[in-house]
Amino acid sequence: MRIFRRRRSRRKFRLTREGRAFLFITVGVGLAAVNTANNLLYLILGLLLSLLLVSGVLSDLALWKLQIKRKLPTRLFAGRRSVMDVALLNDKRWLSSVSVETTDELDGVETEPARFVRVAPGETQVQSYRFETLRRGIVELGTMRVITRYPFGLIEKGYTIYLPDEVIVFPRLLDHVATPAVRPMQGDAAPIHQTGRGNEFAGSVRFYREGDEARDIHWKRTASRGELVVREHERDSNSLVTLTVNNLIGSNVDDEAGWREQFEISISEVATAAGAYLTQGVSVQVQANDTVSPLVAGGTPPDPIWRFLALLKPCRAEAPRRARKRKRRAA
Amino acid sequence: MRFALAHKLVTYLFAGLGLTALMLGTTFSPIESSFLVVAFVASWFAEAPLLDRAGYTRFWNIAAVVVLLLQIARGLGGEAMLTIGVQYAAFLQISRLSHRKTAADYQQIAILGFLHLIAGTVLSAGLDYAVVFFGFVVVMPWMLALTHIRKELESQHGAGTPMLRAELDSKEFATPAFFGGTTLLAVPLFLLTAAMFFAFPRVGFGVLSHLGARTQSVAGFGDAVELGGFGTIRDDPTVVMRVKPANGPHPPQQSISIRLRGTSFDRYSEGRWSRTQSNGVALKRLQEEYIVFRPPLPEDQAYEIILDPMEEAVLFLPEGTVALRVPPTVRSGRDRYRRITHAPGLDIRYGGRVEAPLTYTAHVTPKRRGFPERIPTALRKRYVEVPAGYERVAALARKVVGDATNPNAQAQLVERYLRGNGNFRYTLEQPDTEGEDPLHVFLFDAKAGHCEYFSTAMALMMRSLGLPARNVTGFLGADYNPYGDYYAVRNGHAHSWVEVLIKGRWITYDPTPASGQVFAAPSGLAVKLRQMMDAMRVRWADYIVEYNIRDQAKALQRLSAWYRSLRGNSGANRQGAADDSGDDPEFGPIPFRPDWRWFVAIMSTFGVGVLFARWSRKRRRQTRAGRQLDPDRDRAVRLYLSLESSLRSAGQARPPDVTPIEHAEELRSSGFPAADEVREVTDAYLAARFGEHGLPPHDYHRLRQVSRTIRAKAKRPPTA
Fold first, then answer.
1. pTM for the complete prediction?
2. Do A37 and B332 touch (CB under 8 A)?
3. pLDDT by residue (tens digit) across B68-120?
4. What is the Cα–Cα distance from A166 to A169, expressed in whole angstroms?
5. What percent of chain A has pLDDT over 90?
6. Which chain B residues are Cβ-neighbours of A49 within 8 angstroms?
7. What is the ipTM of this complex?
8. Domains of chain A (ranges plus CATH)?
9. What is the distance in angstroms between the Cα of A210 and the nearest Cα belonging to chain B?
10. Dihedral (C-alpha) A118, A124, A129, A133: value to the nearest 10 degrees?
11. Residue B595: φ, ψ to 5°
12. Which structural domain, as residue segments, surrounds residue B693?
């Protein structure tokens, strides 16, 4: 995405602390020049103002022909710090882009900046920033501020670009949750299991996910693909557990805030338990009051379950119709 | 270069320029200046782990307080506040340089350096300040950019972390390209600065203005002068004034023998000339013209004189000057005229401070007969006074004039006697007096000396004959400076001669032998450089230091006239504009004739230099990539680098994590127009580089050609 081609870009211009000091000195020199009629002070005043002008032009050059891309993390958990990668391509032919900062906006809140000290012409550099989301669900990524203080750190110049994206934040995982043992199921009702931590290599690979063991990395394939790839293992298991979440706000709930708090805790417990069961090779399904998650085979990543839990919303029992009719009559 | 080293070098350059600006004035004695330089150099060696010691920082903090108290005590003791302030500012910079650690310290050094530059404006307005200023124009972008990068690195990695140390040791930032680019910044900076400088309205109030320029000392123009006391200054090349005759010789002569009169002395006693003290009377002024004898007439010749500030505020005037034109200074948009005084002995001095060379014009009558001068009675006696003990001199005078009774003839006889008949010779060596009267030694023993001896001898001889005479000091001769188109008067041109009052007019006689009056103009490279420097000094003073609202208004008039002429207005308008500008002696054209050959030569050299740098860089890169390879593989590497260059130009650069073959495939699948050529070159490269196939020169050249066509092909729009 080219910054200067974005129609929704907004320019930003601000003096930094050093810039304000510089301006203060400039005004002082100007006053002294007028007061004393000393031409050498006029000369210095000209130099100071020229530096500000040149600084402004060079800032624009630093921001010229930049392309920015976010690299979203594969998994995000509520309440846990994560890292977002930002790739910056300097598409200029001759000039480096120095001292560029990008600041993202997560759900309307600005994140820490990702700093690029120097990106050589034609090169792409990836920097990251840490952030933490407090709630599960969909988090919207909106605008991104791109600023530079190049070359002298006097002026902060930048643009706000609109890079819409969204990311699903999985529920907060708890440190520990009880996972009672489950018995294997027999017959047709038993789930089919393909992968897991077994002894035998199944011959298939998949992309690395957070939590995978380093010893499973398939280095040759990783080198050829340019991304981390891990081996999958077979494991025979036919156990299934169905976890339930109560997402119904009953009509008799007085303290809805407290209920919602409890609801979030139960979701965290279920998410943690689901992860634990799947690691143990037990297939997992989550049952809510109004919906059900996909069945996830034991040994496979719990992402479908977590995604389901991330998006699970409380529902309400329908209000009695009679009461509404009465209201109408009264009206 | 390592970032840390580059930043340190630039910081020292910046701070050094600031300290130099402080040292330009007279606030530092030579000893203090030497001490400052030593401390500046010593601070360079202050490095970690010394900088990390808590006691070291504490030492500097305590020292700053102690020195401050010391300076306050000196201030209370009567020391000039400016001196105290400037010295403390210099100390602070040394202190800061001695314990610089973080970017914040470097920022403080930059601020202090810049404040020093500002302080320098009140300490000196000469060309030396110009040099410092232009140094700042070049170094300031380096300093600000590097300090900013250091701050960014610190905020990214944290101060003192190993990662930061690694970044400071990297050579990624302080590259030749960085320094080249920031040096080129000096060009727009300079142009913008110049544009703003000339455009700012000059509405100065003149309060707390300049503290005055550094003056030079030239003996012979004060209240007294010791015979032979000053020594020889004949070889001193320092320019003290410049003369521009309005109708000078064409082509200009290498030297002219102009006589510029300074002051005169009326009393001689014990080997010492002195002048009767008088405040003098203010010269009458008609607009900008000060009347010495009469208002200027059209037949008078005008000499523009640019006089460097001297300790004695004497105006040097060519012989026969009748009037002066001294332009006023402009303060708050108003003209402030100087007070010019005329004291007995034709001693003409200016009042007020000078910040730069003083420019004035002398109107000289073509009739060099002298003017009747009103002489106070008390002074008339002094002009014939001969101190006791000079009877032998009087006897010599009588012997020299013989029977001549005409005063003019008597003066000529004495002059002729001293110039040659008496076997006197001119020498720069001081006669050895051994406690005796120097004039007696000169006249009767040594018979050799310089101009002071000759003029003193003639003055006393004329007085002993009863003719009023006075010893005059000034300058004789000037050398042409082709770079400034003026005649430069050096310290070495200082001279003294005699004026004798004959029939109510002062007539000039110069008894110094011709060898003491005529000197060959110096030549050589050093002289040319000095001439260039002096021409620059004059222009700096003229166009920068003395630039005022009048010049600004005239420049605007010229600009608007030029604009009108561009728009093709009537000839009358153009004529009017030419009259407005061309005839104005104040704002004449800049005496600079551009030599386009130089310009073409410099630009060609620059172009060749750039091409060579690019070629050598490319060559180095290729050599590095193909080092220790056999010729076939070396060619293969160079071929692929050429392909990569073409792909970069076409906007299809190969990412570092993609192999050449993958890149070629990706280009093919993305529909890149020259994908087949890329594949062909890539295959040839891989076969030669890693396979058994060679890459003979003719294949190499053919494939280079193919890779060059990629760029053009990629830009061509696809056909339907």
1. 0.67
2. yes
3. 999 999 989 888 888 888 889 999 999 999 988 888 999 999 999 999 999 88
4. 10
5. 19
6. 192, 196
7. 0.71
8. 3-169 (2.60.40.10), 172-198+236-331 (no CATH), 201-233 (no CATH)
9. 23
10. 160
11. -105, 105
12. 626-715
